[in-house]
Write a structure and sequence with these properties.
The structure is a homodimer.
Chain A: H1 9-17, E1 25-29, E2 33-38, E3 49-54, E4 59-63, E5 69-74, E6 94-99, E7 106-108, E8 115-117, H2 121-126, H3 131-134, E9 136-141, H4 152-163, E10 172-176, H5 182-192, E11 200-203, H6 216-229, E12 235-240, E13 247-252, E14 256-258, E15 267-269, E16 276-279, E17 282-285, E18 307-311, H7 318-326, E19 331-336, H8 347-355, E20 359-364, H9 377-384, E21 388-389, H10 395-408, H11 412-420
Parallel strand pairs in A: 6-9, 6-10, 10-11, 11-12, 18-19, 19-20, 20-21
Antiparallel strand pairs in A: 1-2, 1-5, 2-3, 3-4, 7-8, 12-13, 13-16, 14-15, 16-17
């Protein structure tokens, strides 16, 4: 039945009569002539329309009553793309592309109607022929996961893989990654691979690679231009600046967030302009200092995931904090309000957490701006209860850094010191 | 000892010899002549400086060695301001000001060195004499709490108080409130007092009212101009647009967040321009529709605070979700990634929560943009597990709305219906 997925009643009958299946390329004569691929329909759809994906990448609904003629051009099986083997130019710089999955490495599955990760790194590479003019790209698939399924264990695998290339002849490394949690991964790599000698660019896309409207190709091209021409190291996220296809921006991997669910320019540097802006072949550098505050490459690929993120809000039940303490967490990052506050109702359990030797760090749910806990008496109370003010580290980065710091040291005082040490531009002056 | 708070060693000795206490107004002759108030010092300060608050509101440190002469102008007791009784002009519109505390109703306590909530609504009113030219303001103190200590019980008290004025001759109501959780309170009032006939403006300030750099007066004046001239109802947050003192903006109470820890323009409307902009006496309306989608005033002042906010991140321990289920929560708002995703590791416990009849709603930690759970197979999986896609409601608003919806109905299907009904512009078209 998946050949007619989602179609029912009249529309199903129409497809069966015309021997057309979901995924087939067709030519339809109605008010105009349409060329496209028959898309699956979702439940609760009416039975009066067909959905056609046009070459432009957009879907339209066509009323069956108004279709004069439908003709199959090719069936779904034939639309599988063939792999191309690219010729390499030995004069060009070398880039390593590691694929982890996500939209950048996915296509719309015309049978299920959903976007699934299927493109291999080789396919990704060959699907953007422009790449071969600026660099020789070696591609490798590490795994194929949507980024909501990227776990800290995956971070370790990526870091271990990248570490091997610290003395290679690559000019830079691209990590193709789903956008949802890309900034968590970039944070981990920034700390675990502090001082890594060549630049690392995490690249994602907001629309899948096989759609006409995809931003994948431009983001990849921008990233390669950046890696080849930036003349520095560090961990960055490279994406569209906005809906405009001309500008690609490069964010510090430790000061960036996905701030919009769907826009191409979803990623934003918090509290500053992006570190680099790439317009055509020009690379404009806004970053004042170097990304890594540590000069030598000192890989510390360790983690302790027993860190909880507690976003405070009116009505937050202190007993929930109590459960976190009971569950033997080693660190708690508070996403406090404003300058770094949580309600008085929380104090007793914060005290308990402190007495148990749990690392307690304060960030703000405002996201932008610095935590300052000496302005109000409530902030001063929290400092006295053992909470450390984490400056202007954004909450997600503080969480990842705490997992990393606790993975590298069991000594609470040392962990506190690491948390306040600016390692990879996570603290903004 | 609090008379010399924070001073030690040489600086303490210097104060004692000259019989000067913290809080005293003094004249100091050094490289220049300085007039100001002696401020307390914080721990770990050196003992070589005095801190003086200048009339401009800024603090400076003066090296004791370089002070030629220090002279007391008045002691701290004398600096307590006297209350003024304002004359009222019966031709002007009437505004009710309810004070709940926060920076707008606080001053720097020169003895403790911290900002504490102390101004009464009357003082607040009389401290801004311009108010009496545009409206007759009746003031009342409801309580005096920093907003991180405002709990859902306070929301109920504010709503019950406001409800009494639904048929009064006030043109509008101001709620002076701490900024940290102001957007949570504005959300609750928007739902609980849906259809309330006169406009409600929550007003805060980022710098305390007795500081020269305070934004309190301008925010209050802007709010009163807005309430008197807006010709509509609804619940709004009225604050500075940016560092510029000329523009006051008015945000929809259900689509606003504090997005910066310290800037005057910390509040931002998510996904749109502010509803109204007030420049001098001009009120520019950007809001297209009416704030309330319900026309008649239908107060429903109820709450069920057993709602948890779960911000998903890589490494989120599903057992923590398990604890929330065990603790008999009635609702869970997920702050998922991207278009509304959480990792596969969470599925088993999501299923358990759904089977237990817990309301499950999905928002995005991107904050801006719409949750769309039909694009990726993972989103579709979550819909099948019973999670409701909450459109573009921001996470904090979804949390408050769920507390309110669950307070008004024990029927899960009805709660789901309420959550997707646009009541007070919380869902943006």
């Amino acid at each position: 039945m998946s050949e007619f997925r989602g179609y029912a009643g009249k529309s199903l009958e129409f497809l069966k009569i015309n021997k057309i299946h979901v995924g087939d390329s067709v030519k339809i004569l109605a008010d105009l002539t349409y060329l496209g691929i028959i898309m699956p329909r979702y439940e609760h759809s009416d039975d009066k329309h067909l959905v056609l994906k046009l070459k432009s990448g957009y879907n339209i609904g066509l009323e069956i009553e108004k279709i004069e003629k439908i003709e199959k051009i090719s069936s779904s099986e034939k639309s599988i793309e063939k792999k191309e083997i690219l010729e390499k130019n030995p004069a060009l710089p070398k880039i390593l592309l590691l694929s982890t999955g996500g939209t950048i490495a996915s296509k719309v599955d015309y049978r299920t109607g959903a976007v699934t990760p299927v493109l291999t790194a080789e396919e990704l590479n060959s699907s953007v022929p422009e790449l071969s003019k600026i660099a020789n790209v070696d591609a490798e698939v590490l795994f194929s996961e949507y980024s909501e399924n990227i776990m800290p264990e995956h971070w370790l695998k990526i870091a271990e893989k990248v570490k091997k290339y610290s003395t290679s002849n690559y000019s830079g490394i691209i990590i193709a990654h789903g956008t949802d949690t890309m900034h968590y991964t970039s944070s981990f790599l920034s700390f675990a691979l502090a001082g890594f000698p060549i630049p690392i660019a995490l690249v994602g896309s907001q629309r899948s690679s096989d759609r006409a409207s995809s931003d994948a190709a431009l983001n990849l091209i921008g990233a390669i231009k950046f890696l080849v021409g930036c003349k520095t190291n560090g961990v960055y996220i490279v994406m569209h600046q906005d809906e405009n296809d001309e500008t690609i921006v490069c964010h510090l991997g430790t000061r960036v967030r996905k701030n919009h669910t769907s826009k191409r320019g979803a990623f934003q540097t918090i509290g500053d302009n992006p570190a680099f802006i790439i317009v055509n072949d020009q690379i404009q550098r806004n970053m004042k200092d170097e990304f890594f505050k540590i000069k030598e490459f000192q890989p510390k690929i360790n983690l302790n995931t027993k860190v909880a993120l507690v976003k405070y809000h009116p009505g937050y039940d202190p007993n929930l904090l109590g459960k976190i303490i009971e569950m033997n967490y080693n660190g708690i990052i508070f996403e406090g309000t404003g300058l770094g506050h949580i309600g008085k109702t929380m104090y007793a359990n914060v005290k308990k957490a402190n007495e148990k030797g749990i690392f307690l760090g304060m960030t703000s749910q405002c996201i932008d701006g610095r935590v300052r806990m000496t302005v109000y008496e409530s902030g001063r109370d929290l400092l006295n209860l053992g909470i450390i003010s984490l400056e202007n580290m954004i909450p997600e980065v503080a969480l990842v850094k705490a997992m990393w710091a606790l993975g590298n040291s069991k000594n609470l005082e040392e962990v506190k010191k690491i948390m306040l040490q600016n390692i990879a531009s996570e603290i903004y002056d």
